[in-house]
Amino acid sequence: MSFEAKTSNYVIEAGATLEAAMATITANRRGAVVVIGEGNVLQGILSDGDIRRAMLRGGTMLTPVSKALNMNVTTLTQATAKKAQKIFEENTAINLVPIVNAKNVVVDVVVRGDR
Known about the structure:
By secondary structure, the chain is α+β, with helices and mostly antiparallel strands.
């Protein structure tokens, strides 16, 4: 599987700003973005609601994404990626599911409605 996290509209680096995350979420039209750290390691997920709550706690557009992300993430492996549709059916709030390897590196993102 070939996946370029740095060029995906569904992934952003943990050091990016909330403003950059908002722009990425607007571009992907899924209400959330997967957050990665060094080496594409999964850090969490960030939704519109997470950004709103961060702003209510005093965050600004320049606040790093890492200060607002949700670390409670539903993930799949390449071997279980076919279960994404079931996840989407069971939880309408989930629009992105990161596919990770054994080292928690994001290798793909399954997106509601794209596959």
